[in-house]
Amino acid sequence: MFGLGMPELVVLLVIILIIFGAGKLPEIGSGLGKAIRGFKKGMSEPDAIDVTPKEKGEEGRKEGIEKH
């Protein structure tokens, strides 16, 4: 796993516990999980960009201006 063995992971966990404290770990894990889920969802959904050409008078009607 990224070239990290068990001793390195334990050292990282201890450093994280020292920096954030045990109370903040569930919040950090929850936020990280939501970020990963959002990223996966964004990658799997098709793009929602509408590239259909507009009609000539359509732009003016949206802004409330009629073109003659």
> What is the element string, with H for helices and E for strands?
HHH
Say what oligomer this is: single chain
In helices, the fraction of residues equals 55-70%
| Cα Rg | 25 Å
Region (Disordered): 44-68
Subcellular location: Cell membrane
GO molecular function: protein transmembrane transporter activity
Biased composition (Basic and acidic residues): 52-68
Which features does this protein show?
transmembrane, Sec-independent protein translocase protein TatA, 68 residues, protein transport, translocation, 0% strand, single chain, cell membrane, mainly alpha
Describe what you observe in this structure.
The mean pLDDT is 79. It contains 3 helices and no strands. Helices cover 60% and strands 0% of the residues. With 68 residues, it is mainly α.
